[in-house]
Amino acid sequence: MKISAVVITFNEEANIEAALESVAGIASEIIVVDSHSTDRTVKLARKYTDRIFERKWTNYADQKNFADAHASHPWILSLDADERLSPKLRDELLALLTEESDCAGFSIPRQVFYLGRWIKHSGWYPDRRIRLFRKDCAHWQGEYVHEKLVIAGTTGSLAGPIHHFTYRNISEHLARIDRFSNLGAQKLYAAKKKCRWYHLLVLPLARFVKSYLLKLGFLDGFAGLVISVLNGYAIFARYAKLREIWKKGERLEPFPD
Fold this sequence. Notes:
By secondary structure, the chain is α/β, with parallel strands linked by helices. Helices cover 40% and strands 21% of the residues. The strands form three sheets. A seven-stranded mixed beta sheet has the order 3-2-1-4-9-6-12, sandwiched between helices. The relative contact order is 0.13.
């Protein structure tokens, strides 16, 4: 069982070495697709691989499909630059290397390190994603944000987590919400969805309650409170921006029938 580790990057000099180091000894090759970074991302990645491709950014799914297409081996391990394989997951993957699996892919839990602690609740864990899969059985879909892996065949599950260092602080968290809410609003607008009053009042509150109470976010302390509040705010921002887009469209260029 040979694995190609695949990472897409843009200005990830703070993360890329740790990500690639974590797959060393697991992957038979490492593929990096970089969107013309202006920092040292590519230079640092060359310490681990010469299979680096420069490509203009399109969207998450398209970049990952491009990267996967350049994999030489039948199995792909898809990792983001701000993720690392945990020691437990490395041990599981090393065991898999000696076997031949009938599965088309394996789901892996992700655990986020946020505001000085590992998050165990709040709807952020276990956050299982299929990240190890057969190249010929899967492809990525999604034009805007939150790309989805479509896989044909049975899937297994691994217990060891991917460690996710997604935000260094609340400011980075807010910046990500701002960027992703822009994309989310554009996706809703492209589907001709409208913003209603309950999208701005009921859905954000419901998301907070779900994260903080139903998903036990209160057990994650201050970090759980921040996550839950910002989960609700992310919904509000998406629909508020959708309303803003429609207002501009009505003045400038409404959707044709």
